[in-house]
Specification:
With 177 residues, the protein is an alpha+beta fold. The chain has one domain (4-173). The protein is built from three helices and seven strands. It has a seven-stranded antiparallel beta sheet.
């Protein structure tokens, strides 16, 4: 998938863009278990992730787009991730030093969501910057808003339409981790 203007909106609602990372070495941005599932299929084209925060800079939401070479692989990945979102995960981005945001403590609770398009899986990993486990509904709202926005753009991209016009079509998963 092309440059991820798909994810890099400066502001989506009350959520602000922090930074992004793109790689064709997809295994670098995911768990070993997820990389193993992808290796059994046709492989990954690209993984692009973007980090967002809220206006108060309390939350950190990573939205990742995993684009696969074969559509059937997207379905396999989505199925495994839906069954076990912690084991089969795309890793959250750490904020760049210039962002002035703390790194979320390892093992912190979070909200994990995903949607599937034709050949991509869009992930949303949301956590409080301080590792807090409170206000899950607020965190879920941020994660879902970003996930839906990015998913709509990925769908539009895959359909050859202009970016920024998608409506969030895709198969939803409501599990949280």
């Amino acid at each position: 998938m092309g440059a991820l203007a798909v994810v890099s909106a400066v502001a989506v609602g009350a959520v602000l863009y922090v930074g992004k990372a793109t790689t064709t070495e997809c295994e670098r941005g995911m768990s070993q278990e997820l990389a193993g599932i992808i290796a059994q299929g046709g492989g990954c084209l690209q993984l692009t992730s973007a980090l967002f925060t809220d206006a108060e800079r309390r939350s950190q939401v990573t939205v990742g787009v995993l684009s696969l070479k074969r559509a059937e692989d997207a379905a396999s990945v989505f199925g495994m991730v839906s069954m076990d979102p912690v084991t089969y995960q795309v890793v959250s981005l750490d904020p760049p030093p210039e962002a002035g945001l703390p790194t979320v403590p390892p093992g912190s609770a979070g909200v994990f969501r995903r949607l599937m398009t034709v050949r991509s899986v869009v992930f949303s990993n949301a956590q409080w910057a301080d590792g807090s486990e409170t206000r899950e509904a607020e965190l879920t709202e941020q994660a879902t808003e970003l996930l839906t926005y990015v998913n709509g753009n990925v769908v539009a991209y895959e359909e050859g339409k202009r970016k920024g016009k998608g409506k969030g079509k895709g198969k939803a998963s409501t599990g949280s981790g």
